[in-house]
Specification:
two-stranded parallel ribbon; mainly alpha; Protein Binding, DinI Protein, Chain A; 5% strand; 167 residues
């Protein structure tokens, strides 16, 4: 991370020094997190994922309630249960618990994979919009994901509007 910052600082210094005698350097900034939150393409992708994974999420919630019921039943009745019944219930609980954890892990992995795919598509569209804005408005440099930036350099709203217009 330090190397990346050093390279960026060196690049900025070099650009500023070369532009001192020439023309004014035009710099812009894009907030990637805002694009993921506010851009219509990102919101559409989030709704698509929500619909795609809703049934599996409901199944997991149902399974979690079933596990909770089994656990409460075991805690409440284990003292009065026959030893064989208690062992059977504990075995059933253990198997269901492992199945739940496996399904939960698979759900998270699948969801993360799909989120990454959808985010990549949004970023690709955003990068095209950013390049078009940079060329049209003659920017020398557009940055993303910086520690701090002056609000006057922020062109995120223009990128979001361009994405909404389908550019």
């Amino acid at each position: 991370m330090k190397i990346k910052s050093l390279v960026l600082a060196s690049l900025m210094s070099a650009l500023l020094m070369t532009s001192v005698g020439a023309t004014e350097l035009k710099v812009g900034y894009v907030n990637t997190q805002r694009i993921f939150r506010d851009a219509p393409a990102a919101q559409k992708a989030a709704k698509k994922l929500e619909g795609e994974f809703a049934k599996r999420d409901q199944d997991l919630q149902r399974m979690a309630k079933q596990l909770q019921g089994l656990q409460e039943n075991l805690e409440k009745n284990s003292v009065t249960m026959a030893e064989a019944d208690r062992r059977t219930k504990e075995k059933e609980f253990g198997e269901l618990s492992r199945e739940f954890q496996r399904k939960q892990r698979e759900f998270r992995e699948d969801l993360n994979l799909r989120q990454n795919e959808e985010n990549a598509a949004v970023i690709e569209k955003a990068n095209k919009a950013i390049k078009q804005i940079a060329e049209t408005e003659k920017y020398d440099l557009i940055l993303q994901d910086v520690v701090w930036v002056s609000p006057r350099l922020d062109i995120t709203e223009r990128v979001i509007k361009a994405l909404a217009e389908g550019k």
